[in-house]
Fold this protein.
Amino acid sequence: MKKNIAILCSGGDVSGMNPALKQFVEYSLQNNLTPYFVYDGYEGLIDNNIKKASYCDVAGIINRGGTKIGSARSKRFMQAKYRVIAKENLDKLQIIMLIVLGGDGSFKGLHTFYKEHKIRFCGIPSTIDNDISGTEYCLGVDTALNMIKFSIDSIRDTASSFKRAFIIETMGNKCGYLALVSHLTSGSELCLIPEIDYNLNDYEQKFRQEIQNGRRYFIAVVAEGIDQDSQEIAEWFEEKIGIESRVNVLGHLQRGGNPTVKDRLMAYKFITYAIDGLIQNRNESVICYTENGFNYKTIDTVVNTPYQLDSELIKFISS
């Protein structure tokens, strides 16, 4: 029987997906597997946009952000009739193994797909939100953090020159990981994340005193998932603290950029563990990374366990 294996990217793209695609093709061929690319995520599974991949397809992509094979958020895949079509398309090509790079929503769809059709798969956490239960690191996070670092460092130059407060909004949905780590590593004066209740009034006296003592600017890093709009926080700085303010919503620049060395290496390792697991008949796993290294967890455990932000990180700003 042919040993055909496919890979797809689902949900938001991250820097690190292209290095993962390169290792997928090369490691598959090393293990006598025939690699296939599924273009445009689950939409490609439904539309049979599935093509055999070779070394030529991944030459020169390791330094590129995004994903060469495209990604998508598929509403059709939520319907059973389209999942049937997806399985039929895989069967026609005798693809018996599937690797999915994606986040929480992608894994929930994959979980349903497995329960219905028993396609052997391995999931690789790939989201800058870093909000997948069971793993401390998701592919693309380091590049996103470095993009934020560069932005904050650049904005600080203007903030100090013009005596302003800058409110820098990061992505993360309802997870404050990007904002929190960026705050801790940039030396910003304020960090607001969904996981911690806050009252801006608690900062008024401290910030006013700092201005009196010579502070020229403030940097506030806020997660997009907090209750207040970033513009409201800027208005608070102007009205209550008495300093001119600006808002910078970093937006999708956080998802792009040249993949860092860490994300390239993590892509290499994630893919290697994923293919090894499938070869060893791990049929429904997600590759997770913790301080103890890489490990396999069942898809059921990952999608049914609520994600919680590292309590040690929270302690650093709540103490």
About this structure: The chain has two domains: 4-140+259-306, 142-255. Residues 4-140+259-306 form a domain with the Rossmann fold fold (CATH 3.40.50.450). The chain has a mean pLDDT of 95.
